């Protein structure tokens, strides 16, 4: 689940070397997506497998199982997870942390006082490949952290396999979906300080401009401008799907001389050229 309403719960879990369904709000990992692609490719290429929309009864069963799993987390009901997972199940959260059945079940505890929440399953899609089924679903999480309401959205991929006539969860991965963050009022900003051209290669130039109190960055001619939302002095967040950080650097003279785009835990530096 998410750190936003799993704060203490998640920290206990991570220190123990395990993770359950989700971690804190964050971004998707290549490992999560790669595992999902490998699972799909594997079942799709199996000689006895066939791809097709799952029957309504199976779709409803997998949704019931998934809803029961996420409902069991706030209450600390380990039995639901114990019964629903295969013995070799793999659970990967949006940070790429990997856990297996024993780790996951042992890590489940009721939320401490002050933390609460629920998850609504939205827009489900179920594909069946013989004795394997894949559920793609959005998990819409409403959280309350000591009276503060939070909303986190996840896109999840669950892989079920049929064992002894029962559908069991063998793989669970999720990624965080970008949502509109709260706007912050940052005083003392002079948007004109940032306006100009920034280069990271001979023919790769970004243009930063401001208009009507808003700062935008244009990565190439004809592209959609990316609105930069201030979160601190010289620090902004993009408004596109990636929500990267844009950090303006200043020289000894106090003038902006570079732009850093922090993306996926890496920094892309652009030097100011005009």
Automatic annotation (TrEMBL):
Q: Boundaries of each DUF4440 domain copy?
A: 64-169
This one is known as DUF4440 domain-containing protein
Organism in which the protein naturally occurs: Dyella jiangningensis
Lineage start:
Bacteria, Pseudomonadati, Pseudomonadota, Gammaproteobacteria, Lysobacterales
């Amino acid at each position: 689940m998410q750190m936003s309403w799993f704060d203490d719960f998640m920290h206990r879990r991570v220190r123990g070397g395990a993770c359950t369904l989700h971690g804190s709000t964050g971004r998707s990992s290549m490992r999560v997506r790669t595992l999902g692609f490998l699972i799909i490719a594997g079942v799709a290429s199996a000689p006895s497998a066939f791809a097709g929309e799952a029957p309504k009864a199976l779709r409803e069963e997998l949704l019931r199982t998934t809803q029961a799993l996420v409902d069991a987390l706030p209450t600390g009901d380990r039995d639901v997870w114990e019964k629903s997972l295969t013995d070799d199940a793999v659970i990967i959260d949006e940070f790429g942390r990997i856990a297996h059945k024993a780790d996951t079940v042992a890590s489940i505890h009721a939320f401490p006082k002050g933390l609460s929440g629920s998850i609504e399953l939205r827009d489900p899609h179920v594909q069946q490949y013989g004795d394997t089924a894949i559920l793609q679903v959005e998990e819409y999480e409403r959280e309350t952290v000591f009276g503060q309401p939070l909303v986190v959205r996840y896109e999840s991929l669950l892989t079920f396999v049929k064992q002894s006539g029962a559908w069991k969860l063998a793989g669970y991965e999720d990624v965080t979906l970008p949502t509109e963050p709260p706007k912050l009022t940052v005083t003392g900003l002079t948007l004109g300080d940032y306006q100009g051209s920034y280069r990271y290669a001979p023919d790769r130039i970004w243009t930063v401009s401001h208009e009507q109190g808003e700062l935008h960055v244009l990565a190439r001619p004809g592209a959609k401008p990316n609105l930069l939302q201030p979160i601190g002095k010289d620090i902004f967040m993009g408004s596109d799907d990636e929500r990267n950080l844009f950090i303006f650097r200043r020289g000894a003279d106090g003038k902006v001389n570079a732009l850093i785009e922090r993306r996926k835990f890496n920094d892309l530096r652009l030097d100011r050229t005009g």
